[in-house]
Amino acid sequence: MAAETPSADPFRCATAARERVDPLAATATPARRWLLVEHPGPWPFNAFASDAIDSDVLAELATAIRGARSRLLMIRRPGRRADNAERRWAVIDAEPGVEQVWGMWRHSADLREAAAIVREPLPPATTPPPPTLLVCTHGRHDVCCALRGRPVAAALAERWAEETWECSHIGGDRFAANVVVLPDGTTYGNLDADTAVDVVSSHLAGAVVPAYMRGVASAPPYGQAAVIAAHERYGPLPADAVRFVDGRRSGEGSWVAEVTILRDDHPTRLVVDVDASEQAPAMLTCAAHTETSAKVHTAVRIVEA
User: Fold this and answer.
1) pLDDT band of 89, cuts 50, 70, 90
2) 95 — phi, psi (to 5°)?
3) DSSP, residue by residue, the chain
4) Which residue has the higher pLDDT, 86 or 223?
5) Mind listing the pLDDT tens digit for each residue in 102-138?
6) What number of CA atoms fall less than 13 Å from residue 279's CA on the CB side?
7) Which residues on neighbouring strands pair with residue 92, listed in sequence order?
8) Cα 3 versus chain centre, distance
9) Rg for the chain, CA atoms, rounded
10) Burial (Cβ within 10 Å: 0-12, 13-18, ≥19) of residue 114
11) pLDDT(243) > 50
12) Which of 17, 50, 140, 144 could form a disulfide with 176, with the two C-beta atoms 3.0–4.6 Å apart?
């Protein structure tokens, strides 16, 4: 009996998502503050399971970020491991006009300073904070993140060496390569080495690129849909010119979001109606065992209030 011929191409969630044309909008993982820790050695599947940081310190970091609506990410420079003597950490807030705090750590106990800072309000910034570019390359979490993320990280590092970091899982594996621009928290997806450089260059020049936007981390999904719709209608605009203010549920599967746009120092208040629906079930990650439905948020009406 002839041997069965194995499939030539393994399943890749990002490839499948592009074939399905999965919507990017409103898929960014929400976070108001970011704790970045340069990590020696391979990243664990879960950032809170690192064997490079003492368990009691990891527990302290976990408690701190939960209380501050923060997100912990492991980081490293593209293409290399962290030096044992010079590892960095940072606390970066999505709130405009506040300072970033960067520090160094060698021993686990050094990270208690980071935990303390995460819990407290950050001081006002005296100068505009520099950008930080995070590219998800967490291959242990999803193969697509590594395969698609690493070329993007290398391309961005060639242009912005000091600003670029590879990072652990940020969500949305099927949209790899994913890039988060801090401090504003804009998340882009479906990037490759060429489009990433163009999108980040435009973003840093003050023109967000809505076609690749997954959302802004400072807003809930329906708010992200409203912010993206505002950029599409009124752009090109810088990221900090469009802010989600508030919102409420208006019915089963529908929300009303309030967004403010600042153009030429004149604020415009928008009221955006957003509907939620579910996609057909699909395999959403490379490691998925069953099909699941992804929620889609769509801005259906924008009114200037």
Assistant:
1) very high
2) -65, 125
3) -PPPPPPSS---HHHHHHHHT---TT-SPP-SEEEEEE-SSSPPSSGGG-SSS-HHHHHHHHHHHHHTTEEEEEEE-TTSPPPSS-EEEEEEESSTTB--EEEEESSGGGGHHHHHHHHSPPPBPSSPPPPEEEEE--TTT-HHHHHHHHHHHHHHHHH-TTTEEEES--S-GGG-S-EEEETTTEEE-S--HHHHHHHHHHHHTT---GGGEEEETTS-HHHHHHHHHHHHHH-S--GGGEEEEEEEEEETTEEEEEEEEEETTEEEEEEEEEEEEEPPPB--STT-SS-BPPEEEEEEEEEE-
4) 223
5) 999 999 999 999 999 999 888 888 888 899 999 999 8
6) 18
7) 34
8) 45
9) 20
10) buried
11) yes
12) 144
Domains annotated on the chain, with CATH: 12-218 (3.40.30.10)
Residues 36 and 53: their CA atoms lie apart, in Å, by 14
Q: State the number of CA atoms in the 13 A half-sphere of 211 facing the CB.
A: 8
Tokens of 110: 């050094």
**54-84 per-position pLDDT tens digit:** 999 999 998 998 876 789 999 999 976 655 6
135-179: per-residue pLDDT in tens?
Answer: 999 888 889 999 999 999 999 999 999 999 999 999 999 999 999
Buried b vs exposed e over 7-39: b needs ≥16 C-beta within 10 Å? eeeeebbbbbbeeeebbbbbbbbbbebbbbbbb
Point out the least confidently predicted range of 78-82, 151-155, 238-242, 292-296.
78-82
Residue 228 confidence (pLDDT): 98
Q: How far apart are CA 16 and CA 5, in angstroms?
A: 22
The answer to whether 244 and 225 are in contact (CB under 8 A) is no
- pTM metric for this prediction: 0.92
Token output for 3:
């041997």
